């Protein structure tokens, strides 16, 4: 689908709706329509070096993958894949009549006020929430498929991608030397610890995880509800479980809640002991630095594509925050 068809779909939804008007949420890779207590996620017809949604067949395939993979962590949220049809000049979702022009993932709409990042801003995340979340993720990781044969030196290569943003970021922030130092420190650390990472691989600790586990992808209901795992790239999802945990803990650190990050890690490690030595504690810090690196890079992309000075400056402030966090973790090594 294209943006014109999405606008037509929204118009038809509005004309047929007996309740409130539909809402459209747009990300860089999808459109999400909220209507009638459901969410319909439609993938954009795009191709990047890390994903390919360029054909309708591929988008249908990844819709099916998204439902299947997310059902590992959710209950009654991902309801299935439905066709998007065109008939008599109107676009609509579902039904049996009309030409199929795309597909959508149908989900139950979740209560947005229970999203973890929003609750954190209101200081409404308790130790009980964190304990339950640690239990959820530890149980999920224990059941997750073991992935043998993964390239154990891929992370320092991904870490080094940040160097491509050095020239742009240096025009706005005094970070050029820090980026160069961090890339060197990353490679040096992994060269010294490749045996540890290799041993963890042999122990089956590289698993088919969530891949994008941060506070914006978690609803804190009676039972914690992580959602929206990575379906479009196996490499980004099939990782060391400690790498996954590091993303959530880094996100909590970035939000100023280090005590919650520490509590989550302690409880998780009690249930699924994957950080057992001082060297593995260092590896966890390295994974946190890698996750901060990725968030800095994403915000650099956002600053590049910003349409207003205010958007650009906000993205640059976020990039700077994550760069300092990345440096802090590396210095502790």
Question: What does it look like?
Answer:
The chain has two domains: 3-109, no CATH class; 116-332, Aminoglycoside phosphotransferase (APH), C-terminal lobe (Aminoglycoside 3'-phosphotransferase, Chain: A, domain 2), CATH 3.90.1200.10. The protein is 53% helix and 17% strand. It is built from twelve helices and twelve strands. The strands form four sheets. A six-stranded antiparallel β-sheet has the order 1-2-3-8-6-7. Helix 7 (176-202) crosses helix 11 (278-305). The protein is globular and about 65 Å long. 37% of the residues are buried.
From the structure above, extract its key features:
Aminoglycoside 3'-phosphotransferase, Chain: A, domain 2; alpha+beta; 12 strands; two-stranded antiparallel sheet; 17% strand; globular; 333 residues
CATH class membership of the largest domain: Alpha Beta
Q: Evaluate the radius of gyration.
A: 21 Å
| Element-level helix/strand string | HEEEEEHEEEHHHHHEEEHEHHHH
Name the average pLDDT: 93
| Tally of discrete structural domains | 2
The helix/strand class is alpha+beta
Tell me the distance between the termini.
48 Å
Principal-axes shape call: globular
Provide the CATH topology of the largest domain.
Aminoglycoside 3'-phosphotransferase, Chain: A, domain 2
Query: Mind telling me the CATH superfamily name of the largest domain?
Result: Aminoglycoside phosphotransferase (APH), C-terminal lobe
In the CATH hierarchy, the architecture of the largest domain is: Alpha-Beta Complex
Strand elements, count: 12
- By oligomeric state, this entry counts as single chain
Q: Give, in spatial order, the strands making up the sheet with the most strands.
A: 1-2-3-8-6-7
| Biggest beta sheet attributes | 6 strands, antiparallel
Low-confidence stretches: none
Helix content: 40-55%
- How many H/I helical runs? 12
- What is the strand content? 15-25%
């Amino acid at each position: 689908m294209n943006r014109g068809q999405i606008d037509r779909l929204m118009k038809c939804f509005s004309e047929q709706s007996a309740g409130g008007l539909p809402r459209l949420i747009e990300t860089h890779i999808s459109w999400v329509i909220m209507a009638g207590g459901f969410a319909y996620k439609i993938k954009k017809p795009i191709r990047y070096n890390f994903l390919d949604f360029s054909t309708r067949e591929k988008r249908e395939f990844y819709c099916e993958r998204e439902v299947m993979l997310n059902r590992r962590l959710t209950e009654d949220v991902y309801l299935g894949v439905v066709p998007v049809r065109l008939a008599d000049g109107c676009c609509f979702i579902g039904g049996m009549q009309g030409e199929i022009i795309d597909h959508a993932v149908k989900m139950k709409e979740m209560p947005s006020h229970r999203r973890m990042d929003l609750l954190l801003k209101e200081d409404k995340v308790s130790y009980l929430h964190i304990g339950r979340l640690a239990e959820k993720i530890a149980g999920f990781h224990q059941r997750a498929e073991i992935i043998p044969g993964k390239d154990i030196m891929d992370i320092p290569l991904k870490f080094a991608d940040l160097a491509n943003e050095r020239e742009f970021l240096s025009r706005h922030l005094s970070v050029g030397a820090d980026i160069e130092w961090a890339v060197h420190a990353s490679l040096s650390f992994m060269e010294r610890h490749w045996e540890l990472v290799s041993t963890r691989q042999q122990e089956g600790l590289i698993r088919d995880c969530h891949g994008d586990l941060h506070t914006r992808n978690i609803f804190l209901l009676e039972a914690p509800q992580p959602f929206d795992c990575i379906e479009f790239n196996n490499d980004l999802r099939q990782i060391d479980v400690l790498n996954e945990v590091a993303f959530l803990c880094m996100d909590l650190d970035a939000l100023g809640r280090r005590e919650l990050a520490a509590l989550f890690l302690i409880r998780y490690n009690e249930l699924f002991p994957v950080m057992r030595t001082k060297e593995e504690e260092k590896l966890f810090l390295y994974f946190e630095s890698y996750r901060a690196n990725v968030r800095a890079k994403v915000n650099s992309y956002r600053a590049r594509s910003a349409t207003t000075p205010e958007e650009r400056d906000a993205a640059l402030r976020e990039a700077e925050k994550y760069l300092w966090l990345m440096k802090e973790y590396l210095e502790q090594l």
